[in-house]
Amino acid sequence: SQKIEQNSEALNIQEGKTATLTCNYTNYSPAYLQWYRQDPGRGPVFLLLIRENEKEKRKERLKVTFDTTLKQSLFHITASQPADSATYLCALADTGRRALTFGSGTRLQVQP
Amino acid sequence: EPEVTQTPSHQVTQMGQEVILRCVPISNHLYFYWYRQILGQKVEFLVSFYNNEISEKSEIFDDQFSVERPDGSNFTLKIRSTKLEDSAMYFCASRPGLAGYEQYFGPGTRLTVT
Known about the structure:
- The structure holds two protein chains of two kinds.
- Chain A is mostly beta strands.
- Chain A contains no helices and eleven strands.
- Chain A has strands at residues 3-6, 11-14, 19-26, 30-38, 45-51, 56-59, 62-67, 72-77, 86-94, 101-102, 106-111.
- In chain A, the strands form two sheets. In chain A, strands 2, 4, 5, 9, 10 and 11 form a six-stranded mixed β-sheet that branches. In chain A, strands 1-3-8-7-6 form a five-stranded antiparallel β-sheet, with no helix packed on it.
- In chain A, a hairpin with a 6-residue loop joins strand 9 (86-94) and strand 10 (101-102).
- Helix content of chain B is 0%, strand content 49%.
- Chain B is built from no helices and eleven strands.
- The relative contact order of chain B is 0.34.
C-alpha cells in the first residue's frame, strides 16, 4: 500500500541550530514533492517544491533534498528561530495526479 | 498579496442538515481543491476541479458531497446530509496551473456536526 511517513514525535531544538525533518514514502512515483508549514487551526502554507530530477532546492534558510532511490526527502531549517515552531507537512502527487497526499507532519519546537 | 478566502470560519449544524462551505480562490488560478482535516489527523484530499468539472476525487467524496463554481470567483462544497463524522476542518486550495504546482490554502472552515 502507499505510505508517506514523517516522524510523528515532536522535534525539539535550540534556537540557532539546524532542524532536519524526514519524509519517507513507499509505492509512489512522484513527479515532485512539496513541503508545507501548518500552524494550529490554520491552513497549510507552501514552502518549497522539489522535482524528481532535482537533488536539492534552497530558499533562504530552508533546504530540501530529494532522493528518489531512497524514496526520501529531507527538509532543513538552518539558524532556527522560535518563530519556526510549527508542524511541517510533506506532500506529494503521484505520477499523473494533481491531488496532494500529505504526511501526518512533524511538529518542530524551537527553544529560545 | 492575493490569498484564498473561506466562509464561514466556523459552522455548527445538526446531523442530517445540508451545509455549503464557500471559498474564493486566487483570481488567476486554474485548479481548485477541497481537503479536510479531522482534529489531530492528517490533511486528506477530497476533490479537485478544473475547467468547470471534477478532475479527481477521493473515496471520501461520495454522493453526499458536491462541488460547484457558480460564478467566476466562488467555489463551493456542499454536504447534503451531514453525519457526525463529517466534523472536521475543511480547506479550500487553488493552484496557478501549468505555471506552478504549489497549492495555496485558505484559512479553513471548522464544521461541527452535532
